[in-house]
Amino acid sequence: MDRRAWGLGPVTAVPRLLQPNLVHHFYAGGARIAELRGLPPVERCPEEWVGATVTRADSADVGLARTADGALVRDLVAADPLAWVGAASTSGDTGVLLKLLDAAQRLPVHAHPDRAFAARHLACPYGKTEAWLVLDADDGAVVYLGWRSDVDPVELAQRRDAQDSDWMLEQLHRIPVRPGDGFLVPAGTPHAIGAGVFVAEVQEPTDFSLLLEWSVTTATRDESHLGLGFDLAMDAVSTTALGTEALAGFTVHHDLTTRTGAAVPLLPEAGDPYFRLDLLAPPPGQETVLPAGFAVLVVLSGTGVIEGTDAVPVGGGQSFVVPAAFGSWRLVGDARVLAARPGEGWRGSPDGRIVG
Fold first, then answer.
1. In this structure, are 300 and 248 located in the same domain?
2. What is the spatial distance between Cα 163 and Cα 94, in angstroms, rounded to a whole number?
3. If both were cysteines, with which of 17, 270, 282, 342 could 346 make a disulfide (CB 3.0 to 4.6 Å apart)?
4. Are residues 194 and 211 in the same domain?
5. Are 265 and 281 within one domain?
């Protein structure tokens, strides 16, 4: 790689090992995250924000990820954005957020604004389209995604104010899940993750949530509409049915134990403009290659080496951030690695879909 093309100094940009970054929340869970990371279980820490450069909506610092030596990833990116993301920026923005989410209870029915709504009303270029990769699930575990038929906006508002959970869940597609299932959750689509589901969630880098069901959380009604009031906030929530064909397009399945020399895309293609999540699991004696670009890694199992401008050993339970200046890189060994990346052309794509 020509380092001058990236505007880099003499120090080689290499992947950085991350500290665990567990986030306390209102809901129970987290045992599977602790097991993966080799940590003692922590009560009500059901999420880990891996490589995050954004914070939880109610905090100035909760959610920010740190490297093993204590540096904030946000500060590293802001100090050398050309090396980290290959573009000029002072905000520490990487275009993507990866979470591990282990729900021991059902999450509330909610939705997220899209980019157009967020730009108009929340002073942010990102909405919150997200996707889930199921890593593990209890027998009988389910997720809820999209209305089964059109809902009347007036009735939805009434059911929301009455906190009629049974009605809301009945209107949603109820989908049994198994490891390897991937779901795209477009902004605006009402959804909920059921109890006993452990996912890697990749999303746009915000914490914007509109709660239709706050009674199962510690939030109040007034804390459930992003400070906009429900009259305006509900404009961001779809009331249109997610048809069978559309739902099928938002769902994929892969065997996470399969080994192949190619990186395996784990999410529906419709999510590609927003983010990518790939499995790297090379067979013995082979390698798996990813192109240059910012990435967040979670090592699910095994050991190996990632080789680019340098070589970095990796092992099960570890997580890393990879700078763009590491160049095109390859994984060798028996490790199985999840790699999350921002969508193609996430900074200023010609059609305006992606805003960096």
1. no
2. 37
3. 342
4. yes
5. yes
CATH number at residue 131: 2.60.120.10
Domain residues for 45?
A: 3-253
Sign of the C-alpha dihedral, residues 178, 184, 186, 187? positive
- How far is the C-alpha of 101 from the C-alpha of 49, rounded, in Å? 9
Question: pTM of the prediction?
Answer: 0.94
| 273 part of a folded domain | yes
DSSP 84: H
Specify whether the CB–CB gap between 305 and 333 falls below 8 A: yes
Question: 318 and 183 in one domain?
Answer: no
Task: In whole angstroms, give the CA distance from residue 223 to residue 35.
Answer: 33
Among 47, 61, 54, CA closest to 201: 47
Q: Hey, what's the torsion of the CAs at 145, 246, 141, 180, to 10 degrees?
A: -130
User: Number of folded domains in the chain?
Assistant: 2
Distance CA 319, CA 16 (A): 9
Contact 132, 201 (CB under 8 A): yes
Residue 345 three-state SS:
coil
H-helix or E-strand containing 321? Answer: strand 319-322
In a domain, 352, yes or no: no
Cα-Cα end-to-end distance for the chain: 24
Q: 299, 314 in Cβ contact below 8 A?
A: yes
pLDDT tens digit at each of 356 positions of the chain? 344 344 444 345 899 999 999 999 999 999 999 999 999 988 999 999 999 999 999 899 999 999 999 999 999 999 999 999 988 777 899 999 999 999 999 999 999 999 999 999 999 999 999 999 999 999 999 999 999 999 999 999 999 999 999 999 999 999 999 999 999 999 999 999 999 999 999 999 999 999 999 999 999 999 999 999 999 999 999 999 999 999 999 999 999 999 999 999 999 999 999 999 999 999 999 999 999 999 999 999 999 999 999 999 999 999 999 999 999 999 999 999 999 999 976 654 333 333 33
E strands, 223-294, in order: 251-253, 260-265, 275-281, 287-290
